[in-house]
């Protein structure tokens, strides 16, 4: 099983069936798998804060949801997280493709890529970095369980060491 299939299986294991995402080539391998799987309802959003809103709405109706985005877009949803998800204790696992990491070719992606995890620290959002297939199922499934049991957003940061990154 490759990294994308492992993440999909971990989401299924944890009954996360609604996926909101902002389209990006780095996560296309995962979103394509979920779109082809009848277990998931996959919703394409135009902005990251819209994806957060979709996930919050799903949770309010009793459905577990996850959000997929790129680190540059994480900056777009900070207010939605800080003013809605954190105080209302809405658990949303966020899969964030970290840009500005090993092999980055676009200088515009570096600053937000580096700032993403420190911003999460300031907000008190738990996060883990996924950079290899080693114990990936255990790490993803455990993080999603923690997200729901603690009732707070949590980020799983995907690095190019895991998925191969974007090509110039």
Task: Describe this entry's structure for a reader.
The chain is of the alpha/beta class and 168 residues long. It has a single domain, classed as Thiamin diphosphate (ThDP)-binding fold, Pyr/PP domains (Rossmann fold), CATH 3.40.50.970. It is built from eight helices and six strands; from the N terminus they run H-E-H-E-H-E-H-H-E-H-E-H-E-H. It has helices spanning 3-13, 28-35, 48-60, 71-74, 78-88, 110-123, 136-150, 160-163, and strands at residues 16-21, 41-44, 64-70, 93-97, 127-130, 154-158. It has a six-stranded parallel β-sheet with strand order 2-1-3-4-6-5, sandwiched between helices. Helix 1 (3-13) packs parallel to helix 7 and helix 3 (48-60) runs parallel beside helix 5 (78-88). The radius of gyration is 14 Å and the shape is globular. The relative contact order is 0.18.
């Amino acid at each position: 099983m490759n990294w994308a299939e492992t993440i999909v299986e971990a989401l299924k294991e944890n009954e996360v069936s609604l996926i909101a995402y902002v389209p990006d080539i780095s996560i296309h391998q995962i979103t394509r798998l979920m779109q082809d799987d009848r277990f998931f309802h996959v919703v394409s959003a135009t902005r990251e804060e819209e994806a957060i809103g979709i996930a919050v709405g799903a949770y309010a109706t009793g459905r577990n949801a996850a959000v997929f985005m790129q680190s540059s877009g994480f900056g777009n949803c900070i207010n939605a997280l800080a003013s809605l998800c954190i105080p209302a204790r809405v658990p949303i696992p966020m899969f964030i493709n970290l840009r500005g990491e090993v092999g980055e070719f676009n200088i515009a992606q570096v600053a937000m890529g580096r700032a993403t995890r420190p911003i999460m620290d300031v907000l008190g959002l738990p996060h883990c970095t996924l950079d290899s297939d080693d114990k990936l199922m255990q790490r993803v499934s455990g993080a999603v369980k923690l997200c729901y049991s603690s009732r707070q957003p949590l980020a799983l940061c995907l690095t190019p060491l895991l998925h191969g990154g974007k090509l110039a």
